[in-house]
Amino acid sequence: MSGERQRILGIDPGLRTTGFGVIDQQGQDLCYVASGVISTSAIDTGNLPGRLQVIYEGIRELQTRYVPDVASVEIVFVNVNPQASLLLGQARGCCVTALVAGHLPVAEYTALQMKQAITGHGRAAKSQ
Length: 128
Fold this sequence. Notes:
Elements: E1 5-12, E2 17-26, E3 29-39, H1 48-66, E4 70-74, H2 82-101, E5 106-109, H3 111-119
Parallel strand pairs: 1-4, 4-5
Antiparallel strand pairs: 1-2, 2-3
């Protein structure tokens, strides 16, 4: 690996499950560091503020644990169900707020753009 290392925290927002991945980039090389989820399944689905608090605190804990240099958050699109889209938007806003509260620069990408960058084509399966 050559060049300066940069640690990137990627976030896939969700109200029930927010996914994350951490990679190190040095030059053109990428190195896996960690991945996982922040789950709000223990919180009553009717308790939106409680679920958002779990997400916020989870993102802040990731920043403390992995000390990223930058963050990336997936841009979400409107679903068939407008209510679900509004709820997902709140989860996404919570993620962005937690990241900027930790003074991280935040880039925003669509799922298609992320898959294109990692696998070479935008229609890749999540497992890829």
